[in-house]
């Protein structure tokens, strides 16, 4: 049977070095910790556990980085959807400020890991620009820049002309620059995390779907599709946008929206110098945001929402190709040679969620479109929690699993919202 259209190679799959060997699990055994999911969170958790002398085993249904971790835009953006003052209002002064500092450190985690483990990952840390397309957006970015500057972040508010110069488009009224952000090749980074975890003593098995979890006393049994089983006292689930029915109700706590991306063919030197000339990455203040950057091969990437369903033909990316021409008229007629998508787990409150529904089972879900830094740092926090038992190691409180009411209708709702935003959200669609 032919490979389905959605799995056509992404830009990252065609430009990343080969991943490490992660053979399927074929024999039953024991592990200190079993981690389900070989994305950023699972791999970071495995690496940080192994560095503490705890033996983790990662079980991945496909291959390392197959899901959203290897299919995102490669933008490393610190913070959360909430600004620091909002987090303090929501969680109180102590926990709110601690969460803000955690969120603000997430980009540091990524670039520190790349450097510390000498990963073969194309990367650049020139900052992130958030462009504002309305007057309300201008007020929003000014407030955001001021709050993060108050926590020591290198931020700068940009006027219209500076925004146009740095982005290469005149479509925005202004913006702000956060110097902590940057760009990576995300699949290379996932594979780099896997190599580092293996070197530290973790075991990783690809092509090993987990089909069952059961608990007897303090021991969990993790069953795989091949029939091999692992016994452990600790299980960590971090499957995010690719969460299935392994644990009751979990998949119904998120909307696993598809994030679509296109990439041009490599641009000429003149065109490259006219777009993001100082190497920043960018996403904007639209409700249905656009995000774009240049990659290490000189291609322009444009990302945004598309159909909730899996794509069927290249026409499902046509809206992004049109947007490229509208944002950057100098690229009119430029050809595109990569189209791909990946699922992003979005919670109702736009925060990551941590659950411990049974002793020895920890669940992390909800990357909110900022998973590169967020989930890398979450993995470190989860490892500390497992090693010490101290719940204060976690950036967020443990909460009960709460499925969204009428979850089956949310796909229709999200599809309708996407259609509405395209009509009303700044006139560029």
TrEMBL record:
Which Gene Ontology terms cover its molecular function?
Answer: oxidoreductase activity
Boundaries of every FAD dependent oxidoreductase domain copy: 32-384
State the UniProt keywords alphabetically: Oxidoreductase
Q: Which residues are in coiled coils?
A: none
**EC number assigned by the record:** 1.-.-.-
Which residue stretches belong to region Disordered?
1-28
InterPro entries noted in UniProt: FAD-dep_OxRdtase (IPR006076), FAD/NAD-bd_sf (IPR036188)
Entries under SUPFAM superfamilies matching the protein: FAD/NAD(P)-binding domain
Q: What is this protein called?
A: FAD-binding oxidoreductase
* Organism of derivation: Methylobacterium brachiatum
């Amino acid at each position: 049977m032919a490979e389905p259209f959605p799995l056509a190679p992404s830009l990252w799959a065609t430009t990343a070095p080969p991943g490490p060997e992660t053979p399927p699990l074929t024999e039953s055994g024991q592990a200190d910790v079993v981690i389900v999911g070989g994305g950023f969170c699972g791999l970071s958790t495995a690496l940080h556990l192994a560095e503490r002398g705890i033996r983790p085993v990662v079980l991945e249904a496909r291959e390392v980085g197959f899901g959203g971790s290897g299919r995102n835009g490669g933008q490393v953006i610190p913070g959360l959807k909430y600004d620091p003052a909002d987090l303090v209002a929501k969680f109180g002064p102590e926990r709110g400020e601690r969460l803000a500092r955690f969120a603000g450190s997430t980009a540091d985690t990524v670039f520190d890991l790349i450097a510390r483990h000498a990963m073969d990952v194309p990367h650049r840390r020139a900052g992130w620009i958030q462009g504002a397309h309305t007057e309300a957006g201008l007020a929003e970015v000014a407030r955001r820049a001021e709050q993060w500057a108050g926590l020591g972040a290198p931020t700068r508010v940009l006027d219209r002309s500076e925004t146009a110069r740095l982005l290469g488009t005149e479509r925005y009224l202004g913006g702000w620059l956060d110097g902590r952000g940057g760009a990576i090749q995300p699949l290379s980074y996932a594979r780099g995390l896997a190599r580092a975890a293996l070197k530290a003593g973790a075991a990783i098995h690809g092509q090993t779907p987990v089909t069952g979890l059961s608990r007897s006393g303090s021991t969990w049994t993790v069953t795989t599709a091949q029939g091999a089983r692992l016994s452990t006292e600790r299980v960590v689930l971090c499957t995010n946008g690719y969460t299935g029915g392994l644990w009751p109700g979990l998949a119904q706590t998120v909307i696993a929206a598809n994030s679509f991306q296109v990439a041009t063919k490599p641009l000429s030197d003149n065109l490259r110098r006219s777009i993001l000339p100082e190497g920043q990455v960018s996403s904007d203040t639209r409700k249905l945001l656009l995000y774009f950057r240049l990659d290490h091969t000189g291609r322009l990437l444009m990302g945004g929402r598309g159909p909730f369903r899996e794509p069927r033909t290249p026409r499902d990316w046509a809206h992004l190709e049109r947007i490229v021409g509208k944002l950057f008229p100098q690229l009119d007629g430029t050809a595109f040679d990569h189209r791909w998508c990946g699922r992003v787990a979005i919670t109702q409150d736009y925060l990551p969620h941590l659950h411990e529904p049974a002793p020895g089972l920890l669940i992390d879900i909800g990357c909110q479109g900022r998973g590169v830094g967020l989930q890398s740092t979450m993995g470190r926090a989860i490892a500390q929690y497992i090693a010490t038992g101290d719940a204060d190691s976690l950036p967020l409180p443990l909460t009960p699993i709460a499925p969204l009411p009428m979850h089956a209708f949310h796909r229709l709702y999200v599809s309708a919202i996407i259609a509405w935003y395209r009509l009303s959200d700044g006139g560029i669609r």
